[in-house]
Write a structure and sequence with these properties.
The structure is a homodimer. Chain A is α/β, with parallel strands linked by helices. Helix content of chain A is 37%, strand content 24%. The first copy, chain A, has 11 helices and 15 strands. In chain A, strands 1, 5, 6, 7, 10, 11, 12, 13, 14 and 15 form a 10-stranded mixed beta sheet that branches. In chain A, strands 2, 3, 4, 8 and 9 form a 5-stranded mixed beta sheet that branches. In chain A, strand 8 and strand 9 form a beta hairpin. The N and C termini of chain A lie far apart (46 Å). Chains A and B meet through helix 7, strand 15, helix 9 and helix 11 of A and helix 7, strand 15, helix 9 and helix 11 of B.
Amino acid sequence: MNKLLIVGTVAFDAIETPFGKTDKILGGAGTYIGLSASFFNLQSAIVSVVGDDFPQEYLDLLTARNIDISGLVKGGKTFFWSGKYHNDLNSRDTLATELNTLSDFNPVVPQNFTNADVVMLGNLHPLVQSSVLDQMTEKPKLVVLDTMNFWMDCALPELLDVMKRIDVITINDEEARQLSGEYSLVKAAAKIHTMGPKYVVIKKGEHGALLFHNKEVFFAPALPLEEVFDPTGAGDTFAGGFAGYIAQSENVSFENMKNAIIYGSNLASFCVEKFGTERMESLKKEEVVNRLKQFRALTQFDIALQ
Amino acid sequence: MNKLLIVGTVAFDAIETPFGKTDKILGGAGTYIGLSASFFNLQSAIVSVVGDDFPQEYLDLLTARNIDISGLVKGGKTFFWSGKYHNDLNSRDTLATELNTLSDFNPVVPQNFTNADVVMLGNLHPLVQSSVLDQMTEKPKLVVLDTMNFWMDCALPELLDVMKRIDVITINDEEARQLSGEYSLVKAAAKIHTMGPKYVVIKKGEHGALLFHNKEVFFAPALPLEEVFDPTGAGDTFAGGFAGYIAQSENVSFENMKNAIIYGSNLASFCVEKFGTERMESLKKEEVVNRLKQFRALTQFDIALQ
């Protein structure tokens, strides 16, 4: 079975949307990536850090999904994020960010994952992402990196360094524009290519995602939903679906990446249906496969070229 | 050959984008719809009004495309619109709207088009749109209506009346939300269905277009472009491609409408490459067919359902 190594936060979130409000619940990029990737046949491990205040039941939830958490260290207080979404759910205010134990996190890759086939570097300080790559004893078949504007603002040289070592970057549209200085996403992707990643995935939220590779481009729509309940974790769930599909299929071609971003969109479309990780916890594999048919119906057409 | 009847403005536009500025140039919904539909094998006619100041060369341009303009009356001063696009090209300020001869426009459908197969009601006062339908001697196979927020604000009862008589409405996302009172586009489309049209096309500009029919939904992406030069007329070009494709193929099934909105997106992707109608005037049919291959590559995938 192929191995997927995930690095990313495992944390507490408190979320407010127009539909309700949560106390501290399970969150973090690593959590969402791990849950999403658990729908594929693979061995996965999360490298992360939590505080002594982190409940055992959350850890049990990850291990029940066959996620190796031997690389998840404990100490201090758990990273906490709190946010409030605006009415359209497309924008949000961050109410609190308490780094806590994350502020001096030194990732340690479990020995049996230093030869992982696919590495998914969730949104974290670029030096942490680099440190994980330093520990790999074999070159992974694919390294995927997710990042955000925060690191472009305060750790750009380190981000540019780690970008030279990866294959795929996932980034949202505004961040792609910031990183490249180009408004057109086609031009932005071309510029980001020159910074290292051969594949550039631009996430547009409810407007889907674009996959760029040289002159080629593929688009995965977001599934039109009656109601989006809570967008938290959708981007990480997308990335986890992408990396998980690639790891399972052991095929890093552009053609296969098309399927991978459709799978990512598919899993993300479930994530937003309930608060936090709730929907991903109850989700069944059959539901995922059934929704793939909806993605087909949504996008597949048959025009005769005249 | 099938007949397409178009009603819509034939007008002067003055456009400013971050890339430049035009004097009064050829514009109007009817013009863009007509040019777009001229890429299909059909007989088309535009019902409209222009002023005595309207240059013969613009009329010649339409007739050179085999567009019947016997329903285009002349008198007074031509309708004039002027707008300035913001830097992102997604929003614009209207600088001037001079209705002129449009203010008392009574459409007269040419006799040999009162039995048109497809009727495309471009964005105009709903009473003008209704009047065109009143003149049809045979029930068209398909009636498509485009409208905008302006009519929702100042002629809503008349708009709701004409909506009961049509098959397809094309409307942008914000307008769909305004008309339905629903934020979710899935819910908005469902509500608009109940107002009359069996098919609801929601245009999302650079984010593509959604086609809704009962519980079914299809999505046509916009082609990611290096540069959008001028978005003026893109929505009308989209509608003209949609109506033109349906009229040519004489097939009003949902499956065929998928192809029609792909064709609409395809033609619109050319329209925005130059100022005003410039690109649509130089466009060749081979270019359209070639770009269809790009739409295929952009959206078609092949996942085995496991």
